[in-house]
Design goal:
The protein is about 75% helix and about 0% strand. It has helices at about 5-40, 45-50, 55-65, 70-80, 95-130, 135-150, 155-165, 180-185, 195-200, 205-240, 245-250, 255-285, 290-295, 300-310, 315-340.
């Protein structure tokens, strides 16, 4: 086989290897979540113990199938998962798939805007910090990045609500939209459960602006946290790349630092950053619990906290399982993107 053919086949082999790891990883995560949830105890007893007599608890336990052997329950759970059935919540008798559809759309909306804000903050400011290494802009941006990352997200959210909602009265305190907007866009067909899209489909500018105003503060709060991570990563990797031999060769040819930074170093510096960006995006999609709790943004994180409080382990199990699957699939997609950006990855 020629070297050209080997190079051409390296990417498919690399991707097939990574894909072969996805299925066992998902199975392991599903198994861990299932047995950890069952290890906590009987869901019916945990949720209703002390509220119902023993015979009614036994009846509820039998109806839910929790009185069967644990391996039988596990096999049934895997079979249901293969058919797309994540179960029904114990507290409100709601299909978990419906929770993922409705509340997952809220998390997707928040995560999308937060991620855009994080990119807008992290990448350009990281490049500026690297270009002005150890000078005033770099010191200021490094400190800012640490503050963005280290500050508790609920504290930043509460501080933002105090300043921009209470003192200045610029932005709403909480929620995804006011009740009038929610009522109006609820009649949109087809309904996406992403309020901005539904408001645009409804076609009334006042509802669109209402959704945007409600989104600004939670998206910025979460975006600052992730943006601080991106800022530090871009700076660190760009500085490391600027020490490589090919960059020194570019300097020797008389190319100015700005062009070296922009054309030569930045792309290679972004390879490890893309991995972290992808994982952060997956975690955002999984639900930023503290942000959603602080702003009463009824996404997956908010619902997960509510179901945990109510000890609805069926709902918790379904939501956590999907969050874990999102992270695994995101990791696979990151591998694809990384291999396309940096051909060296394919031969490792």
């Amino acid at each position: 086989m020629s070297s050209t053919t080997a190079r051409a086949g390296s990417l498919p082999r690399y991707l097939l290897t990574r894909l072969a790891l996805v299925i066992p990883m998902i199975w392991i995560l599903i198994t861990l979540v299932f047995f950890l949830m069952r290890g906590i105890g009987d869901p019916i007893e945990a949720m209703l113990g002390g509220r119902l007599p023993a015979d009614q608890l036994a009846e509820r336990r039998h109806a839910a199938g929790f009185d069967r052997p644990i391996l039988i329950q596990y096999g049934d759970y895997l079979w249901q998962l293969l058919h797309g059935n994540l179960g029904t919540t114990l507290t409100d008798n709601r299909p978990v798939s419906d929770v993922l559809k409705v509340n997952g759309a809220a998390t997707l909306e928040l995560a999308f805007w937060a991620f855009l804000i994080a990119l807008a903050i992290g990448i350009p400011l990281g490049r500026i910090a690297a270009r002005h290494r150890d000078r005033i802009p770099d010191v200021f941006l490094r400190v800012s990045g640490v503050l963005f990352y280290a500050a508790p997200v609920f504290f930043v959210g509460l501080l933002g609500k105090l300043v921009f909602s209470v003192w200045l009265d610029w932005l709403p305190v909480s929620g995804r939209a006011n009740p009038r907007t929610i009522l109006a866009i609820s009649h949109v067909s087809p309904k996406t459960n992403i309020y901005l899209i539904d408001a645009i489909l409804y076609g009334d500018p006042k509802y669109i602006w209402d959704v945007i105003w409600h989104t600004i503060m939670p998206a910025v709060t979460l975006g600052l946290l992730v943006g601080g991570i991106f800022l530090r990563l871009v700076r660190t990797n760009l500085l490391q790349t600027m020490k490589d031999d090919y960059v020194e060769a570019a300097r020797a040819r008389g190319i100015n630092e700005g062009r070296i930074n922009r054309k030569h170093a930045f792309r290679n510096a972004m390879v490890p950053v893309v991995t972290v960006m992808g994982l952060q995006a997956a975690l955002l999609l999984g639900g930023a619990i503290l942000t959603e709790e602080t702003f009463e943004w009824q996404g997956l994180g908010y619902m997960l906290a509510q179901y945990l409080t109510k000890r609805d382990f069926v709902a918790v199990q379904g939501i956590v399982t999907v969050m874990a699957m999102i992270v695994v699939v995101a990791s696979f997609l990151i591998d694809i993107i990384t291999a396309l950006i940096d051909p060296r990855v394919r031969y490792r």
